[in-house]
Amino acid sequence: MVTKTKTLQLVFLNGANKKVNLSLPDAAANLAGTEVKKAMETIANAKAFAQEGVDLYKTPQSASYVERTVTSLFDNTQGQSM
């Protein structure tokens, strides 16, 4: 069985100028770059996320879709009692 997923990955600089990722696994698959950038700017301007006094999502850097394909070779988890 093959399972494919698509995740929107947002990359920001935090208040300490280090890269941090925000992954959105159920994001719409057809977003335009301008829409995503505007949303990232809204997140940054809200200053709602901080850790130990450092803004987590201060400066938008990039956004991309990450696609993942998993091919299951076997799966004994269905109906198995432990």
Automatic annotation (TrEMBL):
<dbReference type="InterPro" id="IPR021321">
    <property type="entry name" value="DUF2922"/>
</dbReference>
<dbReference type="Pfam" id="PF11148">
    <property type="entry name" value="DUF2922"/>
</dbReference>
<protein>
    <submittedName>
        <fullName>DUF2922 domain-containing protein</fullName>
    </submittedName>
</protein>
